[in-house]
Amino acid sequence: MVVHTLFEIVVKEPKKLELHECESSKIPVGDEVKVKLTYGGICGSDISVFKGNLPHAKYPVRAGHELVGVIIEKGPDSRFEIGARCVILPNTFCGNCDRCKKGLTNICRHKQSLGINVDGGFVQELVISSKYILEIPDELSFEKAVLIEPLAVVVHAFSKVNIKQDTEVAITGCGNEGLLAAALAQYLGAKVTAIDINPAKFELVKRLGKIRACLPEEVIGRKTFHIVIEAAGTKYSAENAIQLTESGGDIVLIGLVNEASLPIVQMVRNELTMKGSIIYQFPNDYQRAIDYLLDPNFPSESVISNIYPITDYQIAYEMAALGNSGKILLNFQEEKYE
Ligand SMILES: [Zn+2]
Ligand SMILES: [Zn+2]
Questions:
Q1: What is the whole-number distance in angstroms between the Cα of residue 101 and the centre of ligand 2?
Q2: Could you give all domains of the chain from N- to C-terminal order, each with its CATH number?
Q3: Which of 24, 127, 178, 323 is most buried when burial is the number of CB atoms within 10 A of its CB?
Q4: Which ligand has the nearest atom to the CA of 150?
């Protein structure tokens, strides 16, 4: 076996991002496969780990959880073929706890999240159990496939409500998840309003299709919606979600807000329903996400803003942290030297 050097991106400590060299020598055993990564998406939670804003993050940690690639080696018990194109499930589940047994693998009691509290996948080759691999169809480009994981978060949230033709939907927060939620809601025929405090986001939203984009003050107290998807993850946004919801309506929270004070009386009097939604069911929500991404009418290309070679990781993270762009991707097989 020829051992070669690989690059990996490590968050050494909050605000300290490094490109390390490691060796490719790890051989997959049992049901493991070795995946040669093509693209990785930078997510809001990657930025939170980098900034030191996630309480359950561990340091140092190899970054990254939105990952696609090709299987280049396999252990004897893996059912996948070498050469298979795949997407990775970056949240582990035990399969044995009470929650897993109820099918709630997304809230497994022993869940570990790649790139947050266990080493992630921003490395050129990753060895991982076949349990966390889903093959992707040949017709789906890797650029689109890297959106499977973040889109599955939205698919799961939408499974808790009924968004259909002409449903009035508000999305609060136009980060990566908010943009994907706006894209999916409008794809499903809903009348979508995307709300953000940063007007720089409005151009991105408009690229997704016929979606109204506005500041919170333009709608709060003026208009209500059947369904509100809270994707900003701020106290202010969670509190205002109630003002934005029509009587009998639903709020789905996907943003991670530590605390908020909610006007419960208004929820009671207006019979509002508030639901939390965390990550996704694997593989079902992944499969749904793949189906949407395969449809040329789904505006996936408009969600992606830039693709950088792995060696430009600093610029890529800076761009993502600025918060003015759509999804930023890293190309793991492109290395650039000045
Ligand atoms: Zn993510
Ligand atoms: Zn479990």
A1: 7
A2: 5-151+280-331 (3.90.180.10), 161-276 (3.40.50.720)
A3: 178
A4: 1
